[in-house]
Amino acid sequence: MIIQKDRIPVKDVLLFGFLPGALKNFVYRLKGYKIGKKVSIGFGSVICGDTVTVGDYTQMGFFTIIRGKNITIGSHVNIGSATFLDTPHIEIGDDTKINEQVFVGGLQFPDSKFVLGRNCLVMQMSFINPARSIIVGDNSGIGGHCLLFGHSSYQSQLEGYPVEFDSIEIGDNVAITWRVFLLPGTKIGDGAVIGPNSLVRGAIPPKSLAIGFPARIVSKPPDFPKLLTEAERVEILQNIVAEMIKFFEGSSLTCSGNSDRYEITRLTRKLWFQKKKTWRLRIEYEAIDENKIPESYKTMDVFLSLKEIPKAIRRKLTAMNVMWIDIEKKEQPLFWNDLGDEVVLFLKRYGVKFFRVEE
To answer: 349: pLDDT confidence band, cut at 50, 70 and 90?
Structure first.
């Protein structure tokens, strides 16, 4: 054959896959790859590309293979074990997570590309074929066991059978639930939700709910998504916080406080010594006056606000090393602490996600 590519890059796995993580990063930098700080590439995992950029704090599980010509992976990206990404052009945005046993590859062209925006999630056992291109916007999720195919071909087009190669476009804040099949040419608008076990072909309007085989629109604005009053948003966040505190307590943390101020304490034992660490959490449900900052903010470790945090307050909190979390703007700072990470992770259970920004 004139054009031949090994199904699995066995040589790269044998040469680089079993090196210790720090040594693997060093060798990749010698190859000209741009590898950020505190990048972890697991046992048996390799990256094969002509131009490769990997951002800070990105992690890959064991026996994961990423292969392409141009590979760009953002910071704080998490790619699970036994995942195989194989297409000429790969772009993965900051804070995106790809779970275990996800396959991206198959029939492709030199310009085939797979693009995942920032803060996305692809769950396990999904099969994605970017024959032309598959582009996913920011803050969107693809459930487990999903099929995204950029081509529809097997029988001869010269005998009248349909053959199709086309791109798939998924907008921002889209939810593709479990066992969804997207056919070539599918375009899904921002904020849309595709119900489980659906087959999608063609265009799905923004902020609509589609379900079925084939999928059809069953709800759209103003009925979907529901318009919430400010009082309802406050009540929802209070309920989420209450559930979060119960979760912390069930995870061997000690919590004290009320609806807007908490102290969370962790006790760890090393040999016969006991170590105590306490964090302070403040929740703000009302609008914040940018001209003043209460003294109590200075004693906080994490500041969670339902309303937008003014830039002046953000800068002051950052200067005090307080991790702020802005629900309205969907933003958090580049720095973090243990409690802040747990709060952000818990809020994701309710679809509340954040982008890291620099102030």
So the answer is: very high
**Buried-exposed string 293-309: b where 16+ CB fall within 10 A, e elsewhere:** beeebeebbbbbbbbbb
Give the pLDDT confidence of 12-68 residue by residue, as tens digits: 999 999 999 999 999 999 999 999 999 999 999 999 999 999 999 999 999 999 999
| Alpha carbon 281 to its chain's center | 25
Rg of the chain taking only CA atoms, in angstroms? 23
Instruction: Please write the tens of the pLDDT for every residue from 87-102.
Output: 999 999 999 999 999 9
Interacting residues of 19 by C-beta distance below 8 A, sequence separation 6+: 27
For residue 236, count other CB atoms closer than 10 A to its CB. 14
Report strand pairing: 133-136 vs 209-212: unpaired
Tokens coding 334 = 């580049």
Between CA 180 and CA 189, with CA 184 as vertex, the angle to 5 degrees is: 65
Measuring CA to CA, how many Å separate 59 from each of 39, 76, 276, 285?
6, 7, 29, 35
> DSSP string covering 16-55, please?
IITS-HHHHHHHHHHTT-EE-TT-EE-TT-EEE-SEEEE-
Supply 177's token pair: 């639930």
- Hey, what CATH class is 10-219 in? mainly beta
Residue count of the chain, please give it.
359
Tens digit of each residue's pLDDT (9 = 90 or more) over 288-346:
887 777 677 778 999 999 999 999 899 989 999 999 999 999 999 999 999 999 999 99
Q: Where are the domains of the chain?
A: 10-219, 230-357
Count CA within 13 A, CB hemisphere, residue 260.
10
Averaged confidence pLDDT in the chain: 94
- 317: helix, strand or coil: helix
